[in-house]
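RETRY 2/3 - previous attempt timed out on the joint model. Re-submitting the same 1055-residue input unchanged.
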Amino acid sequence: MEWETVIGLEIHTQLATQSKIFSGAATAYGAEPNTQACAVDLGLPGVLPVLNEEAVHKAVIFGMAIEAEIAPYSVFARKNYFYPDLPKGYQISQFELPIVGNGHLDIEVDGVSKRIGITRAHLEEDAGKSLHEDFHGLTGIDLNRAGTPLLEIVSEPDMRSAKEAVAYMRKLHELVRYLDICDGNMQEGSFRCDANVSVRPKGQKEFGTRAEIKNINSFKFVEKAINHEIERQIELIENGGKVVQETRLYDSVKDETRSMRSKEEANDYRYFPDPDLLPVFISEEFKAVVKAQLPELPQAKKHRFKDQYALDEENAAILTYSCQLADYFEAVLKASGCEARLCANWITGDLSAALNKAGLEITDSPVSDERLAGLLARISDNTISGKIAKQVFEEMWQSTATADEIIAEKGLKQITDTGAIEAIIDKIIAANPGQVEQYRSGKDKVFAFFVGQVMKEMQGKANPAEVNKMLKVKLNQ
Amino acid sequence: MSLTADDVNKIAHLARLGIDKQDVESYAKDLSGMLDLMTRMSELNTDNVEPMAHPMDQAQRLRPDVVTEQNNREKFQAIAPQVEAGLYLVPKVIE
Amino acid sequence: MHTKTLLELVQGLRSGEFSSVELTQAFLNRIMQHQHLNAYITVTEEIALENAKAADIRLSNGKAELLTGIPIAQKDIFCTLDVKTTCGSKMLDNFTAPYNATVVEKLNQAGAVMLGKLNMDEFAMGSSNETSYYGVVKNPWNTNTVPGGSSGGSAAAVAARLAVCATGTDTGGSIRQPAALCGITGLKPTYGRVSRYGMIAYASSLDQGGPMTHSAEEAAVMLQTMAGFDEKDSTSVDCPVPDYRAGLNNSLAGLKIGLPKEFFGEGLNSEVASTLEIAINEYSKLGAEIKEISMPNLKLAIPAYYVIAPAECSANLSRFDGVRYGYRCENPVDLTDLYTRSRGEGFGKEVKRRILMGTYALSAGYYDAYYIKAQKVRRLISEDFKNALGEVDVIMGPVTPTTAFGIGEKIGNPIEMYLSDIYTIAINLAGVPAMSIPAGFVAGMPVGLQIIGNYFAEDRLLNIAHQYQQVTDWHQHTPKGFE
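RETRY 2/3 succeeded.
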């Protein structure tokens, strides 16, 4: 039988605020255990939550970016369950009236674009962490993370393969960093994914029973975990078994998912409006202010780069993957006055390669946008050839000198004196009568040999276009 | 409306509330009595009434995103039943 | 000294007739002498004397406020820094609060002297103080009867003059009912008027702290300090606090008083009814117009309350899990055992009953039938108040159907106990302010008159109560043996 996979993702993004969603404790990662858990985070008797303005602001920014409805009126609810990393015995979350409603995100897989629906995004507080190192057979609880603001982004079950799921997750990851609402650090748990996976016979309308895979925290693992789960479910059904609705944990070492014992029993979360918090009202004025501050989004930027700068799909996609890279490109373009394609090729080519090799981000590039523009301008005005430019770039990477300084110091300026080029050409033609004969009898390929010989003689400093032109004239005489 | 001993045990588990075996029946009786009291509400037609969660029709006030709390672990953990290396200890959590 | 009013004591302190240390010591002695009332869970003798010394310095510097140097006591529901805070429960018997409630902080700032922490029903769930882990408080008017609850310790301490005044909290009548049964003045402010930060939550949308005193004038002084916006409480209301003493002497001529017929029907003890009739007649003499009104949905206040309050409490009390503070059972074998036994052993029967009720009302399949229905009924009840208070200035009625009942009389029948809150509960559902003031005696036991006003009309309520207290002396009576 042919099977179809149905996937929906729930992505938890930690919002990059200074303080927690309901308290004034710091959210910084990596502090000593429980040193950033204040009275409110610990759920001491008598404490009360007060909502962080910035968390609301960031949620609204996200909602606008996915063209979602922003709820004019949204409500916080208590989700009741007992777990040692949940200090109050309930999580403050949103249930019936989330802050962000229906929206969407467009992904692209194998050159085909697809729209993935986003059902909702709601604000909630993160839980603490259970540390399972051995404390005489006990578990240690660190509540530093408790109360960190989360935006839980719930997709429609619109994805049909692990590949699509990863594409969606990457796109969302790119978006939240673009919007500067989440640092996207997956190792630190700032961007976490739960996947709801089910299979059904192709053509069947109803969804199959789904399993929820918890906390898959890298793009690689998402793909592996989902693929593994699909296989497991198909095998189970084909062997006459039934998929049970359950929560499963992905074990990246064994590359398998297993049932979570702690979540075995059916949950009854008893959601109800949190009486300690009042409804949140989002006014049209507030939305207008946020909208005006919204940065250009990746999709729009990519389209603009293709239209405005005539870039190809690949370059436009690479340059707009991060906001910083796109800004760098536009700065180089403006300062150099060069053709866009030249700038794009250099940034996605030599510069990106050098950054990758050094393990650096664009924001830490040793060659600033201004210095790269200086180099590209010299290519554009034929002062140096592309080949020499690579040599200059390497010098620039190691130093703080400008392209002009390096060109002058090393005498790399292109020879534009036609008399000098002509003399060399004559010398080469005279030295290679056999090849001249071949060329004249119609073997065009030999032409490249002459170009190479001339360039070699001139140590690469001749303008290749000029050499080509003059060679043609001489050989055809 | 009446609750059975079994119902009481289920609710007690949901609330992680240990109750003595010999008290289960009396809880069942008391809760059933309370539920009888509550069925009186069904006399009233509330079809077009908006549920009221708060006495005041006010909006949630927002707090500026500023860190105001300092580390107070020592004081907080002085009243904890079991701590080690700054962590609260509980029986092993099985995932 | 203990027989003086708050303002007489202020006078005495300022004139140097006695010091705060002397005054405080006198009250500490009285507390020791009348321990059998069981009004206090914790007596903070050292803190009290320190506070008193500091107050004496402040008094001598001329920087004193009205409450500076006045010995008061806190209901043990308010967190007090480095002082045992139990909420009347075994669960918190070992709990020393690491911070002060806003109300405590405000009273400390004003220079009030804290004598100790007052007994109460466990987690404020009860109407008789019999659910306290620390034992029942005795009513000073008759020690075989209950003082009411949940602020029973506060009411008994003020009535027996074991504190000049006290804090209380009121979720369904917990200030007004014990005030009525102990013959003192109690004010439940508008929801949001007094900060709930640091006040251990029972039912968050209903809980409200307030003063328990002898007279309305004293309540005005105390509320002045307790009230106000608190940025730590999202439900605290940011509106200015008026000068509560400024209007105390306003005339009541033309005041419109509404008497809901639903308050004076079946169930109200006839002697209590006739006592209230005399009290209301006094208001006629003061120039008020009396009018019968109807609030048809009041009868559903008890069922709505006993869904909403338990629902909220079932979540509010989940934090007591034996992990970070409070009671932990011996040798838990696993996590579930830790939770069930710590909570099972730490909570008393009434608390468990309400947690079970609330858990049930919120559980899948029952949420709409109980919780949502109760919230809708709550809306209708609150509209009854809005309508009534559009028609009249204040509503008056009984606080309790009878005077104080005997210890042990109702504790075996929780439903009957709940029904005794019939006149007070609706006020919390609506969130309006209400007072209980002493209005006479039946067979030697005090009767309270309830005055209910519009949102944030505490100043008006205090004025109305004060005018009555100018022409009556019920609030000045002292139980035998406590003179």
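Chain A has 16 helices and 16 strands. Closing ticket.
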